[in-house]
UniProtKB/TrEMBL annotation:
Keyword Repressor: no
GO CC field: cytosol
Record keywords: DNA condensation, DNA-binding
The keyword DNA-binding appears for this protein: yes
Xref: SMART domains: BHL (SM00411)
Molecular function via GO: DNA binding; structural constituent of chromatin
Name listed for the protein in its UniProt record: HU family DNA-binding protein
Length: 94
């Protein structure tokens, strides 16, 4: 599912206009992004947790030449699925 499909489904389920649904989805994504930029964690009970992890600087290799290169430290967004989401994706077999 792509973002446009998500917005269309959201509009349908909430009986909102497409423009209002687009605004709502974009606002939620902006809020999550802003909080992650600040270093906060965003937890949505039952769905999951968005967080930022720090990656230390390290040495790597250029695959084309084999030369050793320095890879700068960086931050990376992370998502950990919640128990309810995991259970929905992996239903128990009887």
């Amino acid at each position: 599912m792509k973002k446009g499909e998500l917005i269309a489904e959201f509009a349908k389920r909430t009986e909102m206009s497409g423009a209002a649904a687009n605004s709502a989805v974009n606002t939620i994504l902006e809020i999550i992004t802003e909080r992650l930029k600040k270093g906060d964690t965003v937890g949505i009970t039952g769905f999951g947790t968005f967080s930022v992890t720090k990656r230390a600087a390290r040495k790597g290799r250029n695959p084309a030449t084999g030369d050793v290169i320095k890879i700068a430290a960086s931050k990376s967004p992370r998502f950990a699925a919640g128990a309810t989401l995991k259970a929905a994706v992996n239903p128990k077999k009887k």
